[in-house]
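Our consortium's second objective concerns turning raw sequence data into structural hypotheses that experimental partners can test. To show how far this objective has progressed, the report includes one record in full. It was chosen at random from the queue rather than selected for favorable results. The single chain below, 129 residues long, was entered without modification.
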Amino acid sequence: MKKIINPAGLRRPFSNSSHGVYVPPGAGLLVISGQVGIGPDDVIPRSVKAQAELCFETIGKILAEAGMGFEDIIRVNGYVTMREDIPAYLEVRDRYVGDPMPVSTQLIVSGFTRAEFLVEVEVTAAKAA
């Protein structure tokens, strides 16, 4: 359904991602708010990797509720508070999102609503209706 766009002659994206994703008319679109690393028990792990796992577990449940899966993701935005946490975040992202990779942006931000949060992930997904 989605078409990955990586034109010849362009530098590869910095991380495992695509330059563009085309979604044809008539596809259902799901936009998921930024998810932070907190469990249903309100526990916030101390590592960015564990928090990223919780972010993607939550995203998986939201996707499933909409009749979608990780393969339907067309965009991932990841936000971390420290540059050195990007590799750990990307390791988790790549494990959940898979191949072909959607478009993706990683940003370093000064913080989130609670100081304990180290990562936030938002996604957009699309699936043929």
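The partners drew two points from this record. The beta strands are 3-5, 20-22, 27-36, 73-80, 103-108, 119-128. The helical segments are 48-65, 86-97. Both points have been shared with the crystallography group to help prioritize constructs.
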